[in-house]
Structure formats: structure tokens, C-alpha cells
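User: What would this chain look like folded?
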Amino acid sequence: MLCSHLATLAALAALAVPYAAGAQPMYTQGNRPVMIGSPEEGLDPCSLGMINDPPTGPDGGAVMVLPGDSTDLDYVDTVVHGQSVWVCEASGEPGEDEMLGIVYSHDPDQDCELSSPVDEPRAYVGPCSWGWVRAEWVEIVAG
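Assistant: Here's the prediction, encoded as C-alpha cells.
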């Protein structure tokens, strides 16, 4: 009986490896989660922003989404002009080095579950995507 349970666990672990490989990178080698929430009571966890006037390039006017607050990292996704994003965190000095931690979805009807206050700051874990972009390509529109 123990052998059959071990075989089942091994099979399940083998199935999980491809799924984990497609998930967002873990918090290593410069990867950094986007934090949501505020210690101030009653505030929404993030502000609404919009990608504005991104540079043209091989992705046709898209902004690279990075897994951490450094432009030295490889990008994991892109967002485009006019796309709504939730701006949850800022890092670096205002100006060229400033990075924004964003939450976003390519589906405009997706609820990212950010409309209610969060008691304690915590890493955003879904259901939408998250990452970091250069602040110069984001315009805050509400919040």
C-alpha cells in the first residue's frame, strides 16, 4: 500500500513540473513581488493607471513588463498604449530610474480583486498578472 501511495505522489509531482515552469518567476535573482495594501485604514490597495505613449520597437509600441524592479531583468510580458493597469507600488528615484509595480490583465473584463482595502501590505498573488514597468510610460488616472 505504501508503495502505491509513493508511486501516486511521484506521478503527481511529475505533472506539476510543467505547470510550475510556466508560472511567473519566483522571488530570486532580482525578481520581486508587487506589494498591495496600505497601513492606512480604508485606502484602496492600488491606483488606476493607463499605459501612455509607449516607445515604438519590435513589439509595436509595447512596454516590457519585468519580474522585478530592475531593467536588468528579462521581460515576462508586454502591455500596450491605452491598456489599464493597477499601480500598486513605486521603487527607485522619481525620473528615469523609477519603476512601478503593476497588476494587469489582457482581458478588460477581468476582475483583479483590487477594489477593496487590504489590512496589511502583502504580495499580490492573483488572479491577474503582475510585474514592473518604467514609470515614464504610466499615467495615473484615478486613486
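The first strand starts at residue 35 and ends at 36. If you want, I can go into more detail on any region.
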